[in-house]
Amino acid sequence: MDMLLTPTGLLVVLAGYLLGSVSSAILVARWLGGPDPRGVGSGNPGATNMLRVGGKKAGALTLLGDLLKGTLAVLLARWLGQPGPVLAATGFAAFLGHLYPVWFGFRGGKGVATALGVLLGWAPIVGLACAATWLATAFLTRISSLSALVSAALAPLWMAWLRPEPAFVWATAAMSLLLFWRHRSNIRNLMAGTEGKIKL
Fold it and tell me: Is residue 96 part of a domain?
């Protein structure tokens, strides 16, 4: 962790947070001339809400943007030769930036796509395992939030098995806990049987 305290390490982590703070949903909505996603649908500036209120193109572009910013933050740290703990901290910072973006009043999304992008940057095989988990759950249930929760629950286990480095395992566990926290309203809806399903 000493390396994390170097000026370069701190700057890289800060850059990860600032990159994560770029809201793909809001930028896509402005580009396509749609409404601010924070004020329509579920009010969440994420890919699922953009799909519902803006259509497939808006949803796909938002998903891609949110995923890429997580991956790019980690790749930037790796390109600058940062050690594992800094890679872990940078990815986590990008995830936090998506949840609490400085550019948009700290009102961000739930973090599913950005978390996946971070995982792909840390360990592609873990990211692919989580994506497969999401897809399998979504195929069986047609419920996006449940798919995200199942993937989040298994992500630390996938990381511990496939890339058992403590910094990445702990950072993945922290992201998973925050994903559950951000989905607490969805969890209530799931328990009540009122959670909406994916409509394509």
Answer: yes
* HEC string for the chain: CHHHHCHHHHHHHHHHHHHHCCCHHHHHHHHHCCCCHHHCCCCCCCHHHHHHHHCHHHHHHHHHHHHHHHHHHHHHHHHCCCCHHHHHHHHHHHHHHHHCCHHHCCCCCCCHHHHHHHHHHHCHHHHHHHHHHHHHHHHHHCCHHHHHHHHHHHHHHHHHHHCCCHHHHHHHHHHHHHHHHHCHHHHHHHHHCCCCCCCC
Average pLDDT over residues 65-94: 96
Residue 198 lies in a domain: no
Of the candidates 75, 89, 93, 74, the one whose C-alpha atom is nearest the C-alpha of residue 4 is 89
Q: How many domains does the chain have?
A: 1
Question: pLDDT of 142-200, one tens digit each?
Answer: 998 999 999 999 999 999 999 999 999 999 999 999 999 999 999 999 999 999 887 65
How far apart CA 160 and CA 184 sit, in angstroms, is: 25
Residue 136 lies in a domain: yes
User: How many CB atoms neighbour CB 178 within 10 A?
Assistant: 18
Domain that holds residue 121: 2-192
Please answer whether residues 168 and 84 qualify as being in contact, where contact means their C-beta atoms are separated by less than 8 angstroms. Answer: yes
Using the predicted structure, report yes or no on whether residue 125 has a pLDDT greater than 70: yes
